[in-house]
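Input (structure):
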């Protein structure tokens, strides 16, 4: 990890810990999770919002006023809204994506859940995802939340990542292994 990235993640973790503890103390984890989803959607969909949190051209006052208005229109909880206000005053809004990731991880850990990144050649049905989550739970020992992605280049099969473990049952990887074996023989 590069030094600036580790500094950003360190800043994000400190804010995330404070926000998480306040939400847990106030029994507002559901509200926090809704705020995380709302902010993540805004980051994914709005180039103006991304510009606001990353651009050094906006003054602290401009960022603070904009964040206050955005928090009000998004109906964010007081904890998240005031935390974003503090982050804008300290010029720390650039860590918002890492903050959301850290908060999601803390909420999942609190619930005893783990997220599995699943890449498939075609989209899995809800029943297939549930069956996969159930079999992964038997292996991992925790509830598994599936984060789906589709990559048609896999041809068939799945690539599953849970924590540091990766299971690759894709046809593409099997063909690559077969190709390497044939090179060694020839």
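Output (sequence):
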């Amino acid at each position: 990890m590069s030094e600036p990235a580790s500094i950003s993640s360190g800043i994000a973790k400190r804010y995330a810990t404070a926000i998480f503890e306040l939400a847990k103390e106030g029994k507002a984890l559901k509200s926090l999770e809704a705020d995380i989803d709302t902010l993540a959607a805004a980051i994914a969909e709005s180039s103006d919002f991304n510009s606001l949190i990353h651009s050094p051209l906006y003054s602290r006052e401009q960022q603070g006023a904009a964040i206050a208005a955005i928090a009000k229109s998004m109906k964010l909880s007081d904890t998240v809204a005031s935390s974003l206000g503090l982050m804008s005053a300290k010029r720390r809004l650039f860590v918002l994506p890492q903050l959301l990731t850290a908060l999601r991880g803390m909420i999942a850990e609190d619930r005893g859940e783990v997220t599995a990144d699943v890449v498939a050649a075609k989209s899995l049905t809800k029943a297939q995802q549930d069956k996969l989550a159930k079999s992964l739970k038997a292996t991992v020992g925790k509830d598994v939340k599936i984060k789906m992605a589709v990559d048609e280049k896999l041809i068939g099969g799945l690539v599953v990542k849970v924590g540091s473990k990766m299971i690759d049952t894709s046809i593409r990887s099997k063909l690559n292994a077969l190709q390497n074996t044939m090179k060694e023989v020839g």
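Notes: The helical segments are 3-25, 29-45, 47-54, 60-74, 78-89, 96-111, 126-140, 171-185. The first helix runs from residue 3 to 25.
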